[in-house]
Protein 1
Amino acid sequence: MTINSEILASLIFLFFGVTAIVFGAGFGFGTPRALGAGAMPVLVGGALCILGGVQFLRALRANGNFPAAFSRSEIRPLVFILSAVFAFATLILPVGLVPALALLIAIAWFSEKGGRHRELVGAMVVVIVVMIAIFNFGLGLPIRLFAWGF
Amino acid sequence: MDFLSLLAMGLQVALDPVNLLYCLMGVTLGTAIGVLPGVGPIITIALLLPLTFGLPTEASIILLAGIYYGAAYGGSTTSILVNLPGEASSAVTCIDGHQMAKQGRAGSALAVAALGSFFAGTVGTLLIALAGPPLAAIAMRFGAAEYASLVLAALLMVAAMTRGGVIKGIGVALLGIVFGLAGSDVLSGAFRFTFGIPELRDGIDFAVLAVGLFAIAEIISNLAGSAQSTMSTNKIGRLWPTRDDFRRAWPAVLRGTGIGALLGVLPGAGLAMSSFSAYMVEKSVSKEPERFGVGAIEGVAAPESANNAASQTGFIPTLLLAIPGSPVMALMLGAFMIHGVAPGPRMMTDHAPLFWGLIASMWIGNLFLVILNLPLIGLWVKLLKVPYHWLYVFVLAFACVGVFTMGSSSFQLYALVFFGVLGYLLKAAGLSPALFILGFILGPMFEENFRRALSISRGNAMTFIERPISLTFVVLGLLVVALTATAFVRRGREEATDD
């Protein structure tokens, strides 16, 4: 069975609903006069579970009438864009802004199919220069450009 | 202080050179992103949120507001010239605006759109100034029970208006509330959903959440469906409307302004619905409805005035009640909170220079927009030639550096990846990320007032329906949900919602 968007919505509701109840219960519900920190999570989580259940039944009854939630064309940009951000996150402190940005742009560039590899270097230079201009000079934020020196 | 001296104080703040510069930057940027398809005010405001940390409060709010109403302006340009709405709120302008362009009357359509928007913006700004004091006086009398019911009603109304049905709408708002609960509990100080991570003790960072849900997830879905359309630009023609155009346009501008101003205040209606409604009204009151769709100037004047009026009056509930009626307003509210300013009935007195300065700046900004849009129109159209692969690497780089500068740690960036995935999942499930944000902002407000109201009434839940104002809100919210569930407004809604 392919997961369609209606089923996916119900699963998201159920997952976070259950999570909210399980953890929320531990924070203490309190009394109606003095609701505890756990009251809201449990109430909202409960409502989410109910809505998720209703949504799930509705989706099952009308099975097959909805488009699939995920499409193949999304895999490439999803993987490349998220890896680009992840790489930037890992590198920014150890190596500094310029190399981290260069890698971010290089990875993100490949989330679209097709060539234009020559443009990549141009994009790197332009984006890095603009970022330094805005953040370092424009806003005066002290970001290290390279891990060594500066 | 009387009304005039308050406005004078506002003008003083708005005319401060620094603030004037940020206002100009805001409306310029707003026009640019309004023109560009694929980048809207939500993404832009989300991206700039981390930056505003370093700016003075007045300057950053004036900047962000400028982007918001500037985008409503810029969207019309591409609708008319290339039949491509830069924003959802300008989609309806395509119908007659582009027909006019094809007939060589683009200049006329653009001028009417700009002048109508300026008029509507001025009226909208004036309405905020006039409605402010009396509304604040009423809201001052709200207790915790009234506030809790008001938040509930606003959430229900927005959820009901969202594409995809009431269940998914309410569900995704609740999901936002769950994420809003993370961090330390306001009343007891207990840490909730922090999973032992110290960075989460102050709650999930609003700017990171917004950038992840909107910018990152939006880039991914834009790239997946990258059907690049080729655009042909029509000649603009003479830039001044004919006498006949003027005669037909001005009543449409008046009606559009009225409709927009009214719908802008209502939660959930949004800019797109107001321009759509204005167009429908115009068509139905016209003596020659057959002219619509083949280049009627009224079909440009009314919706463009309406969305601009709505973009201004949308500030009324946000500023005075702290209840944002649309996702962009939720972001604006977030921006206020980042700066430690709590919007609400006391804002007009506690932060008078900010409140009146913002209002005055919006009027000045609207003036800037007319100047920016009419003579420089050719420049904006050139922006359409920027290829998307340059645009998205820039947005991505900006997002990452901006988020990093907030805490100078990698944690926020990993959180950005998490919210990018979440935003992608929400989109795949057909759930509105905008409603998620609204729930995230309003959730803590609801919880605090709900618990406080219950402790005041000694645990008696009847307090929410025994107090007349509170009861009104509860009934209103439930009524809208019931009406939507019976498909009463479904038809109009599918064609006209901001997402």
Protein 2
Amino acid sequence: MTRITTDTVEQVADLSKLILSDEELAGFQEQLDKIIGYFEVLNSLDTTGVEPLAHPLDLRNVFRQDTVEDSAPREDALANAPDKTDEAYKVPVVIESS
Amino acid sequence: MPELIELSAGDLHRKLMAGDVTARQIVERYLDRIEQIDGRVGAFNTVTAEAALDKAADIDDRLDKGEAVGPLAGVPIALKDNLCTRGVPTTCSSRILEHFVPPYDATVVERLQRADAVLIGKTNLDEFAMGSTTEASAFATTANPWDLSRVPGGSSGGSAAAVAAGLAPLALGSDTGGSIRQPAAFCGVTGLKPTYGRVSRYGLIAYASSLDQIGTFSRDPRDAALLLEVIAGHDPRDSTSAQEPVPDYSAELEKDVAGVKVGLPREYLAEGIAPDVEAAVRAAADTCRGLGAEVIDISLPHTEYAVATYYIIGTAEASSNLARFDGIHYGRRAAGKMDVDELYSRSRSEGLGDEVKRRIMLGTFALSAGYYDAYYLKALKVRRLIKKDFDDALAGVDCILAPVAPTVAYKQGEMIDDPLALYLADIYTSATNLAGLPAIAFNAGTGEGGLPVGVQLMGRPFEESGLLRLAHAFREATDHHLARPNLTED
């Protein structure tokens, strides 16, 4: 059985872009270990030769004409941004100038 | 005039059209009741009183001029707060979206506007629809109108409580693993989860995209039919929405149910079900027999694997969908000077609640290198087996009668510290979403503590009509729907 250690939780939190306090880490370790331990009930089932099913409907590619349509006005698109200029989202510096 | 609060959505609309009442009178009555009752219930995150009164005035004005109005004209409706409403805050009951005001309407909202329904507010939910008690809301706890010390269920608990408390005749919710049906059962109202793809998900803030479906809350199946007619249908903006034609559900409702074959799955009446819930299901089976239906014992052999399969797939999809909350384009951003990577992490960590973090991490784990095959891929294979169970069963019966939740509504705080126990209580609802099937939950009696007990009917894809018809016939044959929670106005 896969044991979920605090190391695993730290790795998963990192991949999830979450920062956990020591207390949260301990709490989630215990819960995730229990829940993922429960997931292993699926291992008792032989699924040899069973095709995975990602979606309940018989989906096909949906095509449409590539026509030009109005998109949201820039003002609307920026309205909820926590930090912005008149025309763009503002983010911390990603590439330092030399 | 009969008390407006007691009227069905259909009757409210008919009274409006007959000139017996104005849209303004209807809306004012509901707003007044919300004012008096919702302090105790806490169904709403936002009440859109001003916009509702404007809409009512517009409807009355058009009626005065003899102009046409839509099929839901004058009917107030509450919307789960994960459905985007242009100009009205849409929070998902999350700190990260606390101040988010969508620049567009969800397709269902557009359709409701066109039908002249009156949007009266946005309802509370478990944060991002992840939960089954509405206690995982970042803002407030919603109370069950039947017993204010209990939960309304979830995640669409606010919508269910609003309809049960007479704060709205109609509401919309979303159902990913039972989030419409379970709160409908806990609150004694009718909750319809349509077939996956029946209703456009455009503008529904995504939790798990292959499982999410928007559906209805109402006091009875007739109103569910009326509302489904308005919201169902293909939408080019949701490529998973179905091309199937939308039947006249209201007309279909009246057809006879004699000879309908109803399956009773033995795995749903096994260990773990509370005696009062089992009794309600068996009594409902007897009622169906009395209506001329044939009740047949069936088997859904992979039922015990549904919860694990649902939580692996649901959380995997959630971990991907919720990656968009990064503090850049909208939503909460962490304060202070930091690099962009830290900005993402801090914004998410401050803005998301524990249950959401738990599910994001579960999903990230199930999709991560080294675990993908053992968890995610395995769950997709079991999903195929679960769907096949339903395909096989529904080849022999027209629909399946089942419990919704193993018990009546929990006490507040009773379950919230034990996530796995709460997950396990999704045993009767989550398989339906994995298979994409329609299901309707409705009140079928009273259980422990005088609380409502719900049952559900599940059916073949796009056969909502049959479910609505049998649920309607059940209602006509019983008087469970006459019970009301005891909520006196101030």
